[in-house]
Design brief:
By secondary structure, the chain is mostly helical. It has helices at about 1-40, 45-55, 70-75. Helix content is about 75%, strand content about 0%. The model has no long low-confidence stretch (mean pLDDT about 85).
Length: about 80
């Protein structure tokens, strides 16, 4: 049972970290990169880059940790 608790704790902590990474990735593509490209690109190229970067959504990163019992049950066929 201690291993199950340890796995659950690890998954919960990792989920929080993955959420922070997703937020940082989104911030980079939504604010930092457009500002950096503003001075480097001109005209239609600058506008196209700005429009494209605006379409990028926040990534939903998932933790690949599963409890062993659930994994065994879901992979039995």
């Amino acid at each position: 049972m201690a291993k199950v608790t340890k796995i659950r704790t690890l998954k919960q902590n990792s989920s929080a970290e993955m959420s922070e990474v997703g937020d940082a990735m989104y911030h980079q593509s939504a604010q930092v990169l457009p500002e950096a490209l503003a001075g480097a690109l001109q005209g239609k190229t600058a506008q196209a880059a700005k429009e494209y970067l605006a379409t990028i959504k926040r990534p939903e990163l998932e933790v690949p940790i599963r409890e062993v019992g659930r994994w065994v049950q879901s992979n039995k066929r």
